[in-house]
Amino acid sequence: AGVDDxxxxxxxxxxxxxxxxxxxxxxFDSLSRAISERPPEYPPLHGVIHAxxxxxxxxxxxxxxxxxxxxxxxxxxxxxxxxxxxMDEPLDFFVMFSSVAxxxxxxxxxxxxxxxxxxxxxxxxRRSIGRPAASINWGPWSGSxxxxxxxxxxxxxxxxxxxxxxxQALDILASVLxxxxxxxxxxDAHWSDMxxxxxxxxxxxxxxxxxxxxxxxxxxxxxxxxxxLRAELLAGDVEQx
Length: 241
Known about the structure:
Layout: H1 5-13, H2 28-36, E1 47-50, H3 65-85, E2 93-99, H4 101-104, H5 110-128, E3 134-138, H6 145-149, H7 153-157, E4 161-162, H8 166-178, E5 183-186, E6 188-189, H9 191-198, H10 204-209, H11 216-235
Parallel strand pairs: 1-2, 2-3, 3-5
Antiparallel strand pairs: 4-6
Helix pairs in contact: 2-3, 3-5, 9-11
């Protein structure tokens, strides 16, 4: 899905044969049928890249179950179905596109963060049973990807990150395909800004990474802004808040 004829032709011109087969990765029967529809002259399946994702944002206590599941199904059911349907295939790689949302959290995206966290766990499980697996916690890509398509670049930058150039991200993907990594986070972070924003909810894995960053002054500035905002909120009536 999402690949046009011009892109396909460029791949063919590079010497590859391409078959496009549609299936619903979150539906095991649909996925199994799609896998079985491979042209008979094609070699066995040697690699899987699970890059599907859906954004259905909302605050958790206001979210209906169907809304929560919409972002989860393609991640949890989709990855698990791919795991099941390819168990007998001689895979060299099984790469899942996770997100930094699973590591850092993301306001209004609890369902999306949880779904991606499942991918990270599935990668560890597959490795434990001797199957290839890698889960990449991608930061937002520029030019393509869910953040760019949803025009969220300003929102992303406000969280202490820049968008990843697609060519650099693809180079990293190539290194993962040829390497031996189970879980990798890739983001273009402004650490001081990010740490200031995270403050009291800083994930444990960041403590070692950022031990040498002095963010005391930044945290102080952030607290001052927070107090100012609270004062403004308290000064207004309910409708203004």
